[in-house]
Amino acid sequence: MAVITRVPIPELTFPVAAHYSRFSTTVQATFTRHMEDADHAANDASYFMAMIRAAQTVGIAIPATFDIALCSCLNDAGGCGCDLIFDTALPGAVVTATNSPNCNLSQLQCPTCGHDHPRPITD
Asked: What residues have CB less than 8 Å from 71, skipping those under 6 apart?
């Protein structure tokens, strides 16, 4: 009879953030497609699956909230060009625009940009 030896597998750890511009255009397009799927998801299951796929596409840890964002400074006029993909529950994230009608995602600044040059929603 063969003896089966069990060897523990080390726990995998993933980064909590990534820089969008460091990825190929193919990865960027896939990430953007998953974020658009999350933005237009009709139910929680579709939203969560799109967020999981987006996080996995860029190799970051899937947050407990299933919410990630691309810093709004990348595409906003007056933004610094920051391209950080991050967990939206991190302290210091700043909401720069609420979600559009029939959409799920708000625009956020990452905690570093939210501290250095916040552009919060103005009433």
From this structure: 79, 82, 83, 84, 85, 86, 108, 109, 110, 113
Closest CA to 27 of 65, 56, 68: 56
- Amino acid identity of residue 77, one-letter, is A
Could you tell me the pTM of the whole model?
A: 0.86
71 and 119 Cβ atoms separated by less than 8 Å:
no
d(CA 99, CA 17): 22
pLDDT tens column, 93-112: 999 988 888 899 999 999 99
Q: Alpha-carbon distance 83 to 70, whole Å?
A: 6
Angle at 38 between CA 36 and CA 43, to 5 degrees: 140
Q: Rounded to an integer, what distance in angstroms lies between the CA atom of residue 115 and that of residue 82?
A: 13
Are 88 and 67 a contacting pair, CB within 8 Å? yes
